[in-house]
UniProtKB/TrEMBL annotation, chains A, B:
Any one Gene Ontology cellular component term annotated for this protein: cytosol
Residue ranges of domain Mvd1 C-terminal in the record: 195-387
Protein name: Diphosphomevalonate decarboxylase
SUPFAM superfamilies listed in its UniProt record: GHMP Kinase, C-terminal domain (SSF55060), Ribosomal protein S5 domain 2-like (SSF54211)
Amino acid sequence: MVYQATASAPVNIACIKYWGKRDTKLILPTNSSLSVTLSQDHLRSTTTSRADPSFSKDRLWLNGKEEEIVAPGRLATCIAELKKLRKELVEDKDASAPKLSTFPVHIASFNNFPTAAGLASSASGFAALVSSLAALYALPCSPSTLSLIARQGSGSACRSLFGGYVAWEQGVLDDGSDSLAVEVAPRSHWPEMHALICVVSDDKKGTSSTSGMQRTVQTSELLQHRIKHVVPKRMKEIEAAIKAKDFDAFAKVTMADSNQFHAVALDTEPPIFYMNDVSRSIIALIVEYNRVAIEKTGKRKAAYTYDAGPNAVIYTLQENVKEIVELIVKYFPQKDGFKDPFQLFAGGSVGEGRVVEGFNEAVAKKFEVGAVKGLIHTNVGDGPRVLGAEEALLGPDGLPKSLA
Amino acid sequence: MVYQATASAPVNIACIKYWGKRDTKLILPTNSSLSVTLSQDHLRSTTTSRADPSFSKDRLWLNGKEEEIVAPGRLATCIAELKKLRKELVEDKDASAPKLSTFPVHIASFNNFPTAAGLASSASGFAALVSSLAALYALPCSPSTLSLIARQGSGSACRSLFGGYVAWEQGVLDDGSDSLAVEVAPRSHWPEMHALICVVSDDKKGTSSTSGMQRTVQTSELLQHRIKHVVPKRMKEIEAAIKAKDFDAFAKVTMADSNQFHAVALDTEPPIFYMNDVSRSIIALIVEYNRVAIEKTGKRKAAYTYDAGPNAVIYTLQENVKEIVELIVKYFPQKDGFKDPFQLFAGGSVGEGRVVEGFNEAVAKKFEVGAVKGLIHTNVGDGPRVLGAEEALLGPDGLPKSLA
C-alpha cells in the first residue's frame, strides 16, 4: 500500500497588504489583509507527499533540490502540526486507520514559474504542502482550519487555501487560533477580474520581507496609525467593493494600500525601498490610463499593486486587458513575444504597443528592452486542487521524479 | 537722489520638512519646520531694488528675464506688504522721510547657481527680495518680522531670513502673524556643520511642491498623524541636538524626517515620487557609511535629506567631508572635476574615489558618468547681507545691468 497524495495551490496577491507581525513564531499579523487568488492554470505550486514507515526521516525537495527540515523551523512546524491533526482527528477516532502520523514523509514540491520572476512562491508553496499532507492524511478539515497551519509556514500562504477573494483575519488571541483565512467571495462571484504581472528587473537584492517588516514595526512612526485606523476601514471598503463588483472602488483602495505599504517601508530606519524607477513609471502609466478613463466614464479601469519587490501586478477587468498590455509594451519593449493565454491578440502580435486616445504620452519615458523582462497574464482562480496519481512528483522509490 | 539697495540671501535646506498648508494664500503650514542655512559664499540670490517716481510701474527681472507682477500673486503681495510697512513704520512717523511707498520699484534678481541644478531658488530669491526692499525702505524690522512677508512669497523663504539653524514656527492664528522664522542657534554656535549637495539627473518633470503638498493634505491617511504626533516631538529633538551639538541625534532625526516626508508623498493619491534610483542608492551608501561609523564609534557621521526632487543634501561635520566626497565619487563618477572650495584635495584630485575601511561595497552598484551631475560642497552660513552699491544689479537707467 502506497500512502501518497498530490495537490497544487495558487499564488495570491494582496490588495490590502500584510506588513508587520505581532508574533514572529506563530506569524500573527499586526493587521488583517485581503487578496485575490490567481489562476493555477498559469502560476502554481504542486506538491506530492508520501508517508512510509521505511523512510528514515522527513525529507523535502523543492524544485529538485533538497531543503533541510530543522525544528523549530517553519517546514518542521507545518509537518508536525499536520501529523498531530492526523492523530487527533483520524487515528484516535478510528482504530483501523493506518498510523500515518508515525511514518516519516517524503515531500517533493515544484513551482511552474521561475524563482527569478521575483514572485513570492512561499505562499503557493506552503499552501500546496499543507494541502497535499491534508489529502494524504485524509484530514476532515476546512480550508480555514488548514490556513492556520499554512500561516505558520508563511503568513500570506494562509490566503492561498481559498480561491477567489480571500481575507486573512488578524485575530486577537495569543495562540493564533483566530488568525485565519476566510473566503470573502468565490471566483465565480466576479470571474471578470484579471491580472497582468509585469516582471521588473532588479539590480540589487532587496530587504527580505521577514526582516523588513519587523524593522518597520520597531521604527516606523506611521505604522501604528495605519494598523489601528487605516486598515480596518479599508478592509470594510474593499469587501464591500468585491461584493458589489465595484471595480472603481476596488481599484481606489488597492492602489492606496499598495502606496501606503511602501510608504511605511520608507518610514522605516533605515528606509526600505522595494520599488524602482521602472515600478514608478508603471504607476505613472496606470495613473494616466485611469485619468483618461475617469474623464470618459467617471471610473477607474486598472489598479496597480506592489508586494515586497519591484514587480507590478495590475488588476483590471477582462475587457481592458488588451489595451493595458499594449500600453505596457509601448513603454517597456519586450524581447520575447507576449504569451497570450487568453488569445487577446489572436489576429496578430502585440507589436510596438499603443496608448488609448487622449493619453498624455509624456508621463513616462520609453525604457530599454529588458526593463520589464516579462508579462504574465492571468485571472482570478480557484483554491488548492487534489491531483491524480499521474501528476505525482515522487517516483516509485519515494524520491523526486525530477532527479531520475 | 537715487533710492536703491542691494541685498543677498542664502539657500536653506530643511531637516524637519515643511509639507502641507493650512492656508494657501497666506502660506501657513500644517507643521513647524527647521533648516540649516547654507553659505552664501557658494549659493545665493542677489537682488537690487530701486524706487523712483519716474518709473511707470513695479517691474522685476529674474536672471535678466522680466517676470510679470500681477496682484494678488506672490510677488505683488510681498512688494505691497513692504510698501505698507514703509508707510506705517517710516513715513507716517517722520514727515521728512521720502514717500518711497508711493514710488514704483524696479527689482533685479540673480541666482549664482543654475536653475538646472534643481535647487529650490524660491527660498533665497524671496528672502533677497524682501531684504533688499527692507534695506531700500530702511524698515526698522527684525528678521522674524520680515520672515512674515517672505513666507507669503514662498513658505521656506521665511527661514532664509536667518543664518545658522532656523525654525519656522507654524503658528496658530488665522492671519498668520505668528507663523514666522526664529533663530535656534547662530552659525557660530556650530560652524563645523558642512553640506555636500549631490545634483541628481532627473528624466522627468516632477510634481511641483505647491500642488503636491495640497494633494497630500487632501488624500494622505498618514499625514495627520505626522502633523499631530511626529513633527512636534522631532522639533524638540532636533533643537536639543543642535543646542548640544550632538551630530548623531541631529542625523538620526534629519534622515527619519526626510524619509517620512517622502513616505507621506507616496501615501498621496495619486502617489508623488521625488526620489529616483540614484537618490535611493545615495541613501544606501550613507546608511552603510553610518553602519561602519556606528560599529567603530557608536555614532552616525552623515545625514542625507531630500527636498521635493531627486537631489541629495548630505549634512556632515567638516572632518568627514573628504571621505564622503570620495565615497560618492566612487559610485557616481564625475565628468567635471570636483570644485573644492575648502581645499580638501589640495594635494591632488578626488580621482576614482574610495570607501572607508569595513564598507560593504555591494550595497550599491556603480553608476554611469552623469547620474550625479555635480557635487557642491558648502557649509552653514549667515543670513541676508546688505551689499554695497558696487554690487548693484540695476544700471543708471534703472534696468538690469545684465541686459546692457
